[in-house]
Amino acid sequence: MACFEHDGCLLHYQQLGQGEPLVLLHGLGSSSQDWELQLEVFSRDYRVILMDIRGHGQSSKPRHGYRIKTFSEDLLALLEHLGTGPVHFVGLSMGGMVGFQFAVDHPAWLRSLCIVNSAPEVKRRSRSDWVWWFKRWSLARLLSVEAVGKGLAARLFPKPEQAELRRKMAERWARNDKRAYLKSFDAIVDWGVQERIGQINCPTLVISADRDYTPVQIKERYVALMPNAKLAVIEDSRHATPLDQPEVFNLTVLQFLAAASTSQGSLRPC
């Protein structure tokens, strides 16, 4: 992987393939490694760009700068550094939140937007919201990153035939810097741009696993707020859809990208 510096943070990135630029952005506590089942397929037709979000993977773990908006500005700096022009964007979980932020702040930089198992806001409004937050907040602080990783891996990949995935994900999670992870988790809570997503006009696909943390109905509601968005539900999948259903996921994304590239002709901003 290559690296460049932005706002005092060294950010690692990788490029593969040629064609229209396609950014893949990972989720909380993860890294660009988790797109391993997409790279070969997507790079056949696209210039695939991966970035480790600050505090994750091989990127620096600074003491400050953990906000969704900051992650979005890091992405913009990378695209300017690479001279990509407008890109297709695919973001998983927290990476999808960065995608929403990027879409409302920098619409001219997007050819299309694909959001995977994510949302345009994480607000503590109801009692259940506060209970969810307190449980996650407490466990993240009380447990080691190794213990959190094992618990998440077991929840994401519960099938007997997913034993290798469980082992691999638990091992990767154990490499997290706990301070950076906690700051990134805090960046999600009470963030939101839902009141602005009606401005997103580029082709948009929201992918939801049928067994994601949040119900499909929640995605249906926010998809209805965007003028050029559609929803795809992938069955027998949990939060890590690119890993537990890679073939269906890859086909769904590639069909969307092909249609988005054909329909745009001359690019129009989001």
UniProtKB/TrEMBL annotation:
Drop me one GO molecular function for this one.
Answer: hydrolase activity
Keyword list (alphabetical) reads: Hydrolase
The AB hydrolase-1 domain sits at: 21-244
Q: Mind telling me which residue stretches traverse the membrane in this protein?
A: none
Q: Answer yes or no on keyword Hydrolase.
A: yes
Q: Which domain of life is it from?
A: Bacteria
Name used for this protein in its record: Alpha/beta hydrolase
